[in-house]
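Task: sequence design from structure.
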């Protein structure tokens, strides 16, 4: 399933995933999710970096509602398959990418958009970006978005955003640990390109080692993390000889 609203651009070792439906604020639907999943799960060994971008003024204003009509009376299994499974598969696919994933966020990042920013290894935001998890305004528990953020964002940040439905400015998102860096909106593209150039200056094996450690070490006991660090460093260094 390929979506016309996702543009995939390959430039050497860089893969850009562009949310490309600005007319509706880049709302994510099932075909868009499937296209992103297909892209990031089939990366070849020459890829060093994935970058998630957007066209238009907003990064992603959420998700197109997949809910069946009110009179359909869907079963819990149908709701799990239609409503819950697609975003969870997207978040899991992004978490499993072997190389760093960078998001470049401008404008609104709401619901799924907030999750996409948070699930990436690095989130670069413009100073006019806004982050919100508004689902509880409709009495919907946003546990799917929460699943993307838990382990990547402090629990108190997730709790505050979910329960208060507060709209965080880019500066507040930075302080809360949701984004990595905030830059002036006029400089966002240049700063993103500079970050990409810095990352691409490293070998693929080094980038994969760092990414693997970031993904797995936080769940390990201290002794296990130390041994894992030694293994990854030795493996990466041995590739030079």
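Answer:
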């Amino acid at each position: 399933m390929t979506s016309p609203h996702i543009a995939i651009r390959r430039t050497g070792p860089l893969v850009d995933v562009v949310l490309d439906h600005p007319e509706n604020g880049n709302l994510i639907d099932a075909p868009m999710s499937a296209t992103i999943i297909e892209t990031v799960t089939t990366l070849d060994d020459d890829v060093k970096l994935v970058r998630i971008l957007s066209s238009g003024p907003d990064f992603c204003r959420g998700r197109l509602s997949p809910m069946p009509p009110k009179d359909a009376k869907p079963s819990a299994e149908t709701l799990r398959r239609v409503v819950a499974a697609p975003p969870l598969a997207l978040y899991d696919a992004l978490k499993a990418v072997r190389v760093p994933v960078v998001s470049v966020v401008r404008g609104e990042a709401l619901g799924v958009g907030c999750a996409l920013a948070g699930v990436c290894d690095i989130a670069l935001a413009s100073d006019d970006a806004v982050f919100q998890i508004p689902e509880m305004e409709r009495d919907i528990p946003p546990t799917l978005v929460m699943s993307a953020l838990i382990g990547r964002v402090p629990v108190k940040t997730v709790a505050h955003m979910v329960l208060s439905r507060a709209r965080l400015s880019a500066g507040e998102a930075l302080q809360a640990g949701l984004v990595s860096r905030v830059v002036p909106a006029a400089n966002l593209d240049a700063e993103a390109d500079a970050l990409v150039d810095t990352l691409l200056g490293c070998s693929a094996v080094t980038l994969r080692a760092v990414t693997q450690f970031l993904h797995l070490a936080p769940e390990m006991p201290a002794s296990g993390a130390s041994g894992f660090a030694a293994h990854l460093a030795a493996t990466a260094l041995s590739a030079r000889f």
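The chain has two domains: 6-196, 203-238.
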